[in-house]
Amino acid sequence: MAVIDTSTELGKRLQERLQSEQIIWLATVNKDGVPQPSPVWFHSHGDQILIFSQPNTPKVRNIANNSAVSLNLNSSADGGDVAVLAGIAGIVADGPKAHQVDEYVAKYDDGFRSLGMTPEEMAASYSETIRVNVTRVRAW
């Protein structure tokens, strides 16, 4: 059974936001138990979120030590349209690379260009594939 219930208006709205919004906040936990939020580019497919990271970053190290994460979309200016997704993250050694996910490339084409990178250069620099399996959603 899907965690994001797209048969409801709230679930449909959340799915639309996951497809269109550019940034999601990935919160990992460091070895001292302190949450570490990071704004990241992402690709959503069903109940999975893909994130591409540079190697040896705090978020990658944190996930290796504690796979529990949360993902948060920005709320509206008045605090509405809240979406918090809890999940289990892992570094996927044989996962797709950024330039191999057509929807990701299309979503961030302008972003790649603003960084002066091609999708292939982005994939080479952000070579760690993080997969988050969403286990719970809170949204209103």
Seen as an oligomer or otherwise, the chain set is: single chain
What is the helix fraction of residues, given as a range?
Answer: 25-40%
Biggest sheet: strand arrangement: 2-1-5-6-7-4-3
Based on the coordinates given, report the CATH architecture.
Roll
What is the approximate shape? globular
The DSSP helix count reads: 5
How would a crystallographer describe the biggest sheet? 7 strands, antiparallel
Instruction: Indicate the CATH topology.
Output: Pnp Oxidase, Chain A
Description:
It is a single chain. This protein is α+β, with helices and mostly antiparallel strands. The protein has one domain: Pnp Oxidase, Chain A. The chain is built from 5 helices and 7 strands; from the N terminus they run αββββαββαααβ. Strands 2-1-5-6-7-4-3 form a 7-stranded antiparallel sheet, covered by helices on one side. β1 and β2 form a beta hairpin. The chain is globular, with a radius of gyration of 15 Å. The model has no long low-confidence stretch (mean pLDDT 94).
Topology:
Elements: H1 9-20, E1 24-29, E2 35-40, E3 43-45, E4 48-53, H2 58-65, E5 68-73, E6 83-91, H3 102-107, H4 109-114, H5 119-125, E7 128-139
Antiparallel strand pairs: 1-2, 1-5, 3-4, 4-7, 5-6, 6-7
